[in-house]
């Protein structure tokens, strides 16, 4: 429960998006706890009511600076997103340089930029990366990073720094300024590094979290004096741009048991669901902590409260069957017959994700898939679930997406089994309808399909129509 509240509390920082600050001291909780367990509030901030209602058109792609995925160490997906994109909290571990190179070279990975953290300047975080991030990457469609007059991007092997626009203003640094970093993510004057850095450029404002930090060569972070030499080639995370269904293929790769890495894809879906559904539910819960005086805030911290039972379903991450009442009924006499995910998944489906260069035994198909499902191939069906776009055109129309039984299947829990999704194609393109239940009608095909050596899916649909929740 501590991790749950810690992750939620970190979202308070999104209201300000400030990274250059000292961490305040934690507070203690007092008062009786009649039901449940005590709330542990060490180091987590009270969630600002500003986040209770987010604008419908919040640009989540802008919030993640144009990336749609991130690879990091095992742990909380939300904490990985906050650490990698919003520069909040600390990394729960590291990846090896070899893990970075492996994902960088994976087919369908368009961009892969490693980042490393672990130092600050007067509380403002230093982030190490490659200089190509600022010359090649588009942080918004058609827009690359621009530098203020007289500046340039740092060199890969130099002790040079590129200032985010907000960080430069807050730290009063300009081109030609020199500074000494401090070890750790929180300023401690006793932990000053001997290495000094020269500011060689100031980024023009982007309105993204990139504005809030000091950018340096990744080698500078990795090899800073006083750092453990054993981690001289480690990275904190890898920012990724993935094409098509590559994200889903990689999700299956990294979500397997025993994997040492964690992939969050699509990042916008994880953020959107968390901010628009889980967070408001949490706020309602927090306000009901203590009957007459729900929660006591002191300088942004919870200092008093008692837990009450958390009603099931408050997180809004329920299955389609639980939310079906939000959809209008099928038209009377419709040729499309309802097909529930429980009917598609209630058998053990044994199929390898990768063939590893070996010929796959397609003759075993009949043994793997029950006849009752094989016979549904070619049927007109209506399936309810949640959309995860995999192919989006230049007009932001979805040409292909995965239909999943619930939001836990992708962004908040274990990846679904091999028979746990439907690959839906929409040649004319459809609107993005994430984070809400939808009904897809069309013709179902039951067939094992592969993309080179990677399994694509068992169920496929040509989209005839999509119905969203009734307003």
Shape: elongated
Query: Taking all residues together, what is the mean pLDDT?
Result: 75
* Sequence stretches where pLDDT stays below 50 over 5 or more residues: 1-19, 21-58, 285-324
How many domains, as an integer?
A: 2
Question: Would you mind describing this structure in some detail?
Answer:
The protein is α+β, with helices and mostly antiparallel strands. It folds into 2 domains: 1-316, no CATH class; 320-467, OB fold (Dihydrolipoamide Acetyltransferase, E2P). Helices cover 20% and strands 26% of the residues. It has 13 helices and 20 strands. 39% of the residues are buried. The model is unreliable at 1-19, 21-58 and 285-324 (pLDDT under 50).
Task: Describe the structure in brief.
With 471 residues, this protein is an alpha+beta fold. The chain has helices spanning 2-10, 60-63, 77-85, 97-104, 133-136, 165-171, 218-222, 246-254, 267-287, 320-323, 341-345, 365-368, 371-374; strands at residues 69-73, 109-121, 124-129, 138-140, 143-144, 160-163, 178-179, 182-183, 197-202, 214-217, 237-242, 261-264, 296-298, 301-304, 337-338, 380-392, 398-404, 422-430, 438-451, 454-467. It is elongated, with a radius of gyration of 24 Å.
